[in-house]
Specification:
37 strands, elongated, 5 domains
Length: 536
């Protein structure tokens, strides 16, 4: 037995039938679908019914009894050929055909009729010939049938760099059974040998253009070549698609450059016997680094003893097997990570992570993550500016020691942005002054009043303006990139494994919070303009 919905679907809103004594109109009352008089009249005109009674038609539509009502005298049904309609998507990637059935013995749609309509609508590409033949042999009426489909463009693949060495070692300190942290066996060095292949570069592939159903070409994007800057002690292979090491040493990937560094070892302290150290590779100090000395290296620095109020700068990582007591003057600056047992009264900067067991009364900043682990896991006093996340056991102290924390924006990005904004103004002023000098001297030159001395000043002014304009262009391009980074959604997190004490001031992006009561086992994050406290 048919249900209500099936019965509705079988019924048409209205029907025109030809009887022995005239033409009849049947209007069905279907739930939720009223028959429009204009729709009926259009069908009557299409079927070319003559001498119809408009008043009877209006009354039949209004009553919708479902019974046939005579609206015109007896007449032969006009022959109406099948009607072919073509519709395309807005993007012209697909075309559909809809065939209305022939009536009164009219002709069905043939290949010529379908082809003519396709041509009339500009459909010339991707026509499905098998569908056309199927519709001619076994017509499907009053349905949209996909008759043509364009070819979407295929973008090329970018070139890729495949490293054959480990440039991102997982260098987490080993936590011992007693809770202490082993900072000695970090396995930080990725050693390579002379002639060893370091990476392979795959070429980009060209894009394949597409075409829509009206024949318009759709341009594909070609893949971009991979950029690999050759650093120190590295050479290219004959094919230009691979890099090799020139020496035995440590491979490092810093600021988009692949380099190999050798290591220099100081057997005792960095003191008067060594003086300040400036080295292109890695440095290993077996003793201490005493107050007042400066160590600058292009790779990693590893110190087995204690660092006093000294300065250590490294293009790679800084590893302190013990720690640093800076007395307010010590500085650690690393392009990668800083790892130490403890840091006290010092200034620390890291491009990536800072990991320690305790940081006390120091000014620290890192681009990625600050991790306080081991037995203490303590961050107290001073300022910590961190790009992404802080994880510590204890932040602050029960004595409400003032501890300032900023998370969510890479401090290096913010500082670089401020520097560029300030320096850009100076560059624009200098460019303007140089231009004024050029205009004045050009006038003198035109008047034949330019001396040799003035000509030298003109040449210098032209060179200066070219320099300033080039630098201004570079600054503006970099400022755009930095602005995008600063406007990205802040996803900073602070994870407190044990206690977060009063006296701690927290900023996550633009949201601020002053901790007024002790919090335990929680995560702090930004929610709109507020700092929220959630479970760990």
């Amino acid at each position: 037995m048919k249900n209500f919905d099936e019965t509705i679907q079988e019924k048409k809103p209205f029907e025109l039938t030809y009887g022995a004594d005239g033409v009849y109109l049947t209007v069905n009352r279907i739930f939720g679908a009223a028959v429009e008089e204009a729709e009926v009249m259009n069908e009557i005109r299409r079927k070319k019914i003559r001498n119809f009674n408009a008043a009877v038609i209006t009354d039949t539509i209004k009553k919708a009894t479902g019974n046939p009502v005579k609206i015109a005298d007896k007449q032969e049904e006009e022959k109406i050929d099948a009607l072919v309609e073509v519709v395309t998507n807005p993007d012209k990637m697909k075309a559909y055909i809809k065939i209305k059935p022939p009536e009164g013995g009219g002709k069905p749609a043939g290949i010529q009729e379908i082809a003519f309509q396709l041509k009339q609508n500009g459909i010339i590409f991707g026509i499905k010939e098998d569908v056309v033949h199927t519709l001619v042999e076994n017509p499907i009426y009053d349905q949209n049938i996909l008759i043509a489909e364009g070819m979407a463009p295929i973008n090329g693949k970018n070139g890729e760099i495949h490293f054959l060495v480990d440039i991102h070692k997982d260098r987490k300190p080993i936590i011992m059974e007693d809770g202490s942290v082993n900072y000695r066996d970090l396995d930080y060095i990725e050693n390579v040998h002379k002639g060893q292949k370091l990476c392979e570069i795959t070429q980009p592939t060209p894009g394949i253009n597409g075409k829509n159903v009206v024949g318009t070409m759709l341009k594909a994007i070609d893949g971009k070549p991979a950029k690999m800057v050759r650093g120190r002690n590295v050479y290219s292979g004959e094919d230009g698609l691979s890099l090799y090491s020139e020496i035995d040493g440590q491979v490092m990937y810093i600021d988009g450059k692949l380099s190999v560094f050798s290591t220099y070892e100081v057997p005792a302290d960095v003191d008067n016997s060594t003086g300040n150290i400036n080295f292109v590779g890695n440095l290993s100090v077996r003793g201490n680094v005493l107050s007042g000395f400066v160590v600058e290296v292009g790779g990693n620095v590893e110190v087995f003893g204690v660092v006093e109020a000294a300065t250590i700068k490294a293009g790679g990582n800084i590893i302190l097997r013990r720690g640093m007591t800076g007395n307010g003057k010590g500085l650690l600056s690393a392009g990668g990570d800083v790892i130490a047992k403890y840091i006290e009264n010092s200034r620390v900067e890291a491009g990536n992570d800072i990991k320690a067991e305790a940081i006390m009364h120091s000014d620290v900043k890192c681009g990625n993550r600050l991790e306080l682990g081991g037995r203490k896991g303590l961050l107290v006093g001073g300022v910590a500016r961190v790009g992404r996340e802080i994880e510590a056991k204890v932040i602050g102290s029960y004595m409400a020691t003032t501890t300032n924390i900023e998370v969510g924006v890479d401090p290096h990005v913010r500082e670089r942005y401020k520097f560029l904004r300030t320096d850009l103004i100076k560059m624009e002023e200098n460019s303007k002054k140089a231009n004024q000098a050029i205009v004045l001297l050009r006038k003198m030159e035109a008047a034949g009043m330019l001396t040799e001395e003035k000509k030298e000043i003109l040449d210098k002014s032209v060179r200066s303006k070219i320099f300033y304009d080039s630098r201004i262009s570079q600054y503006k391009e970099e400022l755009e990139e930095l602005e995008q980074k600063l406007q990205q959604e802040v996803k900073g997190r602070i994870k407190v494994l044990n206690y977060l004490y009063p006296g701690t001031r927290i900023s996550i992006g633009s949201a601020n919070m002053h901790v007024k009561e002790t919090l335990q086992h929680c995560t702090l994050y930004k929610d709109g303009v507020d700092v929220r406290i959630g479970p760990l």
